[in-house]
TrEMBL record:
Coiled coil, from the record: none
Domain of life: Bacteria
Name the record gives this protein: Alpha-ketoglutarate-dependent dioxygenase AlkB
SUPFAM superfamilies: Clavaminate synthase-like
Taxon lineage: Bacteria, Pseudomonadati, Pseudomonadota, Alphaproteobacteria, Sphingomonadales
Keywords in alphabetical order: Dioxygenase, Oxidoreductase
Entry keyword annotation includes Transmembrane helix: no
Amino acid sequence: MATLFTDLFDTPVIPGLSSGEDIVDREEEADLIARIDAEALSPFRFQGWLGKRVTRSFGWHYDFDGGALAEGEPLPKWLLPLRRRAASFADLGEDTLEQALLIRYDPGAGIGWHRDRPVFGHVVGISLGAEATMRFRRRRPDGFLRTSAPLAQRSIYHMAGEVRHEWEHSIAEMDETRWSVTFRSLANGAVPDGR
Ligand SMILES: O=C(O)CCC(=O)C(=O)O
Ligand SMILES: [Fe+2]
């Protein structure tokens, strides 16, 4: 199946990265955006800095200030049908996507270079509102290998394997508002009591 992230020969641009278009329709998109905006979103905190994007997580909360994973509030009911679709797209059991992160990027907000925390496993993201470009880079002895992929409105992506663990990703500041919902599984051993 050809996806946004495949080349002419249907090879993923980066192994482990796949995407699909129109995972929700326009009406569902408008409803999800209203639901996200109705949640108490707060500026992303990182080691004392406040980011421009606003976020809220459910299921598990990774505290970037303290560097710890903590159990959070359960996923709200309105997110469950979207999680079901995300899990089906990524061929995962829906219960394995234990964390949900809501983000709103107001104009001028983006997300800097990072790899998602190792306590998480699969990352499945849904893009709402303005289209963005996700940039990818991987360090090589002689510099960075770079590529990018469009995050179309109402599309979904899945990061696992190489793209998830070997590459960093970022989104440049945008002029228009974008919302995303990302679902994550936990990595094996992320929770000390072994559950
Ligand atoms: O907004 C997105 O789709 C990506 C967010 C992201 O990279 C993250 O939360 O780690
Ligand atoms: Fe990320």
